[in-house]
């Protein structure tokens, strides 16, 4: 019984996490459709995460003799924050502002395929034509990439006409599944760039964990670095001071 539970729990946790990600993606899309800047959204969400994670990481791991403040470690977490938050998250949320949560979830599924390809290129993964497992991974990669191309190039027919009188007279919806300034191809390209960046981030993160076993502190520090970098980027790209104002509304709920 314990063995069965041990096998089921990780899968159930993964399904739960994916469900939460989908829900948060839909709510983030709604916030941006209502006018929230994607750059400001990235700053506030990661700033809140850093405030929570930093004290918790030291409380969780306690005092360990392993030194964190070494130049190689700091450079790695700085780079993790740069590619994982400053680049990847900003690309993803700007892409979300141009497309929809459906595109976001579809393009995010390319990360395993891209990881497989990059692993072969970097010789981190082995590929043998004679093994059925290698063939299955190749077929899965091709199907996944084919789906991404289909999402990018074929949008499909309109289900509901946004210009219909009944829809225009309807009250504002709680959740929004499309962007008011939609650019499907641009959104997909930004998501693709974000997926490539996250693939590189995964490999760098694996090397960092091998260097330092304190995973919670790695997450805390790269979240802090990413927050600072994203703040500087947002100050440069978001020129409207009103974009930084928070009110007790739906946008604040999404950030929390």
UniProtKB/TrEMBL annotation:
Ranges that cross the membrane: 12-33, 39-61, 73-92, 98-122, 134-154, 184-204, 216-237
GO molecular function: transmembrane transporter activity
Domain (EamA): residue spans on this chain: 13-151
Keyword annotations of the record: Membrane, Transmembrane, Transmembrane helix
Membrane topology qualifier: Multi-pass membrane protein
Pfam families: EamA (PF00892)
GO cellular component labels: membrane
Keyword Membrane on entry: yes
Subcellular location: Membrane
SUPFAM superfamilies: Multidrug resistance efflux transporter EmrE
Family statement drawn from the similarity comment of this UniProt entry: Belongs to the drug/metabolite transporter (DMT) superfamily. Plant drug/metabolite exporter (P-DME) (TC 2.A.7.4) family.
The protein, known as: WAT1-related protein
